[in-house]
Design a protein that fits this description.
The chain is an all-alpha fold. The radius of gyration is 17 Å and the shape is globular. About 75% of the residues lie in helices and about 0% in strands.
Length: about 110
Amino acid sequence: MIPEGLMEKYLGSRGRERKALLKEILALGPGVDEARVMAPTLRDPSPRVAARVTALLARHRLRQLFEEQLVNLKPGKIQILRGHFNKIVGAESVSKAESASKAESEGDGVTG
């Protein structure tokens, strides 16, 4: 759970202060609700902020909300952020599939 005052401070900040507050918030493990509140900051001019907010949205699989934030951004930035989002979602899907496959294979060799 993110302290409300910290989230409000982040949303009202700019520049270096926003980057520092974002790092602090991400360390606390924001949930889906916090990701929804932070989504509009994806439009921040800082590539680092945009990438980190994109990653947060991807981890929570909030594709529709992510796509809404891309409206009126430059085509190159949209392409980069979509690639980043898709890479994270794809990596998580592969990781989950590998875990399931590994669990199944470990169960095959068990004798009772």
